[in-house]
Amino acid sequence: MKCRGLIVVLLAVLGIAVPTAQDGSVDARRRNLDQILDLYVRDGLVYYRALKSDRRLLDGYVNSLASASLASAGREEQMAFWLNAYNAIVLRTVIDNYPAARRSNEYPAKSIRQTPGAFETMKHQVAGRSLTLDQIEQTVLPDFSDPRLFLALGRGAVGSGRLRSEAYDPQSIEKQLSEAASECATHAQCLVIDPATNRMAVSSVFSWRSKEFASAYADKASAAFSGRSPIERAVIAFVEPRLTGIEKAFLAKNNFKIEFAKFDWSLNDLTGS
Question: What's the whole-number average pLDDT of the chain?
């Protein structure tokens, strides 16, 4: 948490303007998003009610995405851009409908999934393209061949990776993605090892993006796991370096079952908590 965050939240709630970056450069846009996340995100949860009441900076950021140019951007710049764009669009989708009316019993109350087509059909103008959130995840991010990106997406849900209180930055994105990957091993929504039932439950994100994870990690698993499926080998190779000694000993026995846990679509809402 950045020390200025709570002070600026109070200023925002009181309606006192906070200075923002004024130029339209990529760096300026990122600074604006950085300020939004610093104000309203705490340990992955979001003050959605406060954000909705003072949304001008978020709206400005999302609207600016349409004219963004990536023609001369390097790989790190592009990865940071698309992660930031996705996460900002999710935030705006939530507050556009907050608090969401319950339309489906399939998902929790107030979930972003209560907004029809939030991921599948709602189009957004980003870098000269018209894309849904699913299209960003399924057709843009795979080109970077780094599955950690999928754990960095803030899907507006408790089950997603922890939404950071800062924007992704090309200068530090390797560190940020490494932290997102490491957090998976300590976050119950991402990984649970249960010796009592001889099971390892992992996030559904691994199964959703099984092609990307298998391509990047399956061959890195120990030969002891060669009899397992590509996605199982990928999961093992991904989490093993980040486990405790006891957990690694559990894996070494290689007689456990891997399950993909049901994704928790409860809204990552800090309001009222």
Answer: 92
